[in-house]
Amino acid sequence: MPYDLPSAERFAPEPDKRPGRTAFQRDRARILHSSALRRLAGKTQVVTPGEHSQEWDATPRTRLTHSLECAQVGRELGAALGCDPDLVEAACLAHDLGHPPFGHNGEQALNDFAQDCGGFEGNAQSLRLLTRIEPKRFTAEGSVGLNLTRATLDAATKYPWPRGDHPTDPASPKFGVYEDDRPVFDWARKEAPGTRTCFEAQIMDWSDDVAYSVHDVEDGLHAGHIDPGRLRAEPERAEVFRVAVGRYVPADTDPAELAAALDRLQGQEWWPHGYDGSAVAQARLKDATSQLIGRFCLAAEGATRERYGSGPLTRYGAALVVPYETRLECAVLKAVADRYVMQRAEQERLRADQRIVITELAEALTARAPEGLDPQFRALFAQAPDDRARKRVIVDQIASLTDAAARSLHSRLTGHP
User: Where does the record place Basic and acidic residues bias (predicted)?
Assistant: First the structure.
């Protein structure tokens, strides 16, 4: 279906400041200029900024650079399939805004703390931030966040259901909206058929997978954590496939299919069979990164066009088709980064320390709030009608912090270094 007038509606009507821009160009600009996007520069993606080896320095991606790269991938893929490129790019820029300090590790710690006030999920937090927390537009009832269009909010929603309502896995921790954000969520999803994600959200989701699977491996090579030569022999290959099964592919996936996927990638002339940090090696690795992104996106574009034809594909008029073999190749890359970067012993020690920081910070703010809260959250804390609402304000405050800000506030409130 094309982009109709309801798709461009805003929760709170407002006039255009400058004629000539589309509604989706305005949405993209609002996200690009938001403080929430800037804060992603201080949030770890996989390799901690500042890490380096004896051979070469690493300049790893942050949540911000990942979001920018995801947006570039999504914009081009969306445009090739007939979507509004600004709409897809806006969704990609917004997809990680709700991630707390320390990434998924911080997300788990905050979810434990928030169990009695609705839990915590980074995607639900992104919607909350876009529609409530990020200061941009206010009505008589209060903040409406960035006041984005219905289509952009829908495109940024990866899991369009509340906590515990996963359509196929009720035990899944993934959800996209807290109960007190249901009014704007229901408004954004008014045209949606059930829990189906719109076409633009599917492009955003695949672009996210492509960007982080490829770039996490690139960062791991740069940092010296991944030796591609080890992927040519057992038992290293079997260990990578073990990581993939149940985490990045269904639990009943045959490891032989993953082996075939890795073989296909290793058989490409551009595959990085070695890396020594030299300028030539860096250039070859960058070419491999580009080749992988192109391979994954062109496969999805071709399969989708084969099913739906050559016309514009938007909203609920199509579904993104990603070939099974392509998903396996992407999953193998995720498992490689997981095995050699995220599962390092020093990373587990770091994650344990990060969980302590988040837990103790939450406890300290609970005991001392509004001390420690930013002025914005201090006012919300004072206005909160009950303990549950006050706890959600504390969660919002912690989720807004960068890694360094979380450690600094933790140290100030607890006296621990």
Answer: 11-22
